[in-house]
């Protein structure tokens, strides 16, 4: 490339960077195009059924009753009313087909990307680097799970609200005022009403106060290291902490709500010793997220926790070594390039609610979707760190652009292949088994996919294989259904009881066991399970109907007296 052409390229790029909303629109459009193939995907039989296609509260669309229920009911062990409302809006607009739900996910992600680009560009006064960081965040293959999986609407909707909060916070910091801070609080509340992991926002905003805003001074970090010192007034640490108190109150409230609604997962975490299991798993997970950022291969939604066996010491040791290296880089960069330090701290703080130290994400050790918010900071650290390196190497602008282009094209190529993995349930779970041949979740959900297609006999080996690997309430319940459909009622009862021994609060299993006992004429026993199902979820249609029928058959009053 000649000097004149390089100069022209720099001039065009500089002119473009002076129009932040245009840059944001281009980033959003590119993101939308990359993820648009997701609209051809079907629902998958992991959580999509509970949230959408078998949830009558969603399928009836936006109604007064539905809106009230969204705010008053805990669904699938979480209270996320705005997420449910968004599903109901999709049902009203598109009906039960999956295309519209996927389209909404893609649109939310694309618009959030544009808003984050504007907020970061304003805060840093470095629109070029900000655009590069946001672009890599937007199209990184680890975004696939959050954007393409309909059940992860809570991810894209919460980050949409987070983007609004970042714009509002930058607006407030430029000229502080009560109404402007109220906008920050409202955006955070909206994000929490979609997914509770944004409880870390007060800490993330404190990081932004240090860099790039320069409102909070740390020893050794002069205002010369901040991005735009003239635009944001420096404040005392007492003030920047005090102004976060309303946000901290929101965080405390939603931490409490989450611990109550996700009690089962919290119990799973407490069953594992803190120092020998939970902390090593957190270290291992963070190291895997960093590796997956650089080498995005082997992605799937069911990375299993090793349970009481724990991770091998060598694996944990290597993870600790990798994290130690990253920590050393952050420390060395803190004086000269604080963006790297603050970006890495954002990554760790935003990850903290999902690391399983307090409340564990079920039987999973980690999940690609957990990197959604953390990756914003990590990409800032990578781009600003790379910028410092190329400045020392005096790499020409065209060479820097070429490196970024190669990274973008690589991400897009992986995205296209990975989106196809989510085409339907069978494709997804066969993909998981190609990576993890002994994954019981994959076997169970493949069996479910066959069962739902009417291939009952064909589904049974998958449930049996899942149970041979790991005892599971779900696999017992589905195998019980398959056996009952073939008239093998006594065998079905054995599996239903085994499932309830593992999870006594499974409404579906109580219902199915009661129905099977009723078929055998054991109505008194059946009634006990219908009552248990109704007690666990009074809104469950099957529980209410089965209980009413059993009481009527036995000549008992319907109100239980």
Model description:
By secondary structure, the chain is mainly α. It has a two-stranded antiparallel sheet. The longest helix has 27 residues, at 98-124. It folds into two domains: 11-425, no CATH class; 426-554, Tetratricopeptide repeat domain (Serine Threonine Protein Phosphatase 5, Tetratricopeptide repeat), CATH 1.25.40.10. Helix 8 (127-139) runs parallel beside helix 20 (397-421) and helix 26 runs antiparallel to helix 27 (523-536). It has helices spanning 3-17, 20-35, 48-53, 56-59, 64-72, 81-94, 98-124, 127-139, 144-148, 153-174, 178-192, 201-210, 237-242, 245-261, 263-270, 274-294, 313-336, 338-351, 374-393, 397-421, 425-435, 440-452, 456-469, 473-485, 489-502, 507-519, 523-536, 541-554; strands at residues 303-304, 364-366. Mean pLDDT is 89; it is low at 222-227. Helix content is 71%, strand content 1%. The radius of gyration is 26 Å and the shape is globular. The protein contains 28 helices and two strands.
